[in-house]
Amino acid sequence: MAAAYGLEKSTVSRQLSQLEEAGLVGRAGEQPGRRGQVLNLTDEGTEILQRAVTSSQTTLAAHLGDWDDRDLTDLARLLARFVETSRHARFSDASGTDTPRSVTSAGAPAHHHT
Question: Which pTM value belongs to this model?
């Protein structure tokens, strides 16, 4: 999970432990042959997630309510492109570790000088 999100393992472990202590996730046990454990949302975690999704959808609908279908289609296309690009916008730095690529405020890749 840490590698998938570009985070430190200790950070993810600490955050997942806090979610578990809060009763929002539960461990389903270890998978044979794998180092990690399967985590599941609890009923309370599922409820909170659903409320957050509903709130986000309501907010988005309020902000985009007066946009026409063409603009919404363009936004959806560009967001999908952004997500796909973000997934692949990683490169290996000199140490061989994956580092997120930075971009300028205009959206162009930033040039790093060392």
Answer: 0.59
